[in-house]
Amino acid sequence: MVENLQRADLNPIEEAEGYQRLSEEFNLTQQQMAEVVGKDRTTIANCMRLLGLPASVRRMVSDGSLTSGHARPLLALGREHVIVDLAKEIAAKGLSVREVERRVRESAGRPAKPADVAGTRDTRPAEVRRIEDHLRRHFGTDVSITLSDAAKGEIRISFYSADDFDRVIELFGTRPD
């Protein structure tokens, strides 16, 4: 089973189903699976999150109409018909992952990030944008850095469910008692 998961030709849904099977049949945690297959635990967690998508959207990921990067933000929408409608629009219009993330934020009533506001340019230093992108990849979720002046600011890390919150907290390497 582990060898099958390491095949290069698996689509993201097949990979997620494989991890789910490992978890159920062998009672492995995501960390244990990560050690067995040689991947980062967050990679496995993000992959397994795809199983929470409606069946029609999972099929779109399986057949390549959507990437896993396009599909993951859809999980935050909650309502199946909204997820399916946006997934169809993504495939039809070829929307970028950033555009999908922006639309999901807007539909959840969260304010757009500075670079998302029409007609404005992100004027933050390139180093801040680079760090924000690094944190976004590390945490596997939306991260924003807001500067209030040269030496002060705020880092905001989004989560979309209780499980997602636990996953993000684990990435800090500590869990409060």
From TrEMBL:
Keywords: DNA-binding
Protein's organism: Roseisolibacter agri
Top-level taxonomic group: Bacteria
Name listed for the protein in its UniProt record: Chromosome-partitioning protein ParB
Family (UniProt): Belongs to the ParB family.
Stored Pfam families: HTH_ParB (PF17762), ParB_C (PF23552)
Residue stretches making up the ParB C-terminal dimerisation domain: 126-172
GO MF term list: DNA binding
Gene3D superfamilies assigned: 1.10.10.2830
GO cellular component, one term: chromosome
Residue intervals of the ParB/Spo0J HTH domain: 9-107
One record GO biological process: chromosome segregation
InterPro entries: Chromosome_partition/occlusion, HTH_ParB/Spo0J, ParB/RepB/Spo0J, ParB_dimer_C
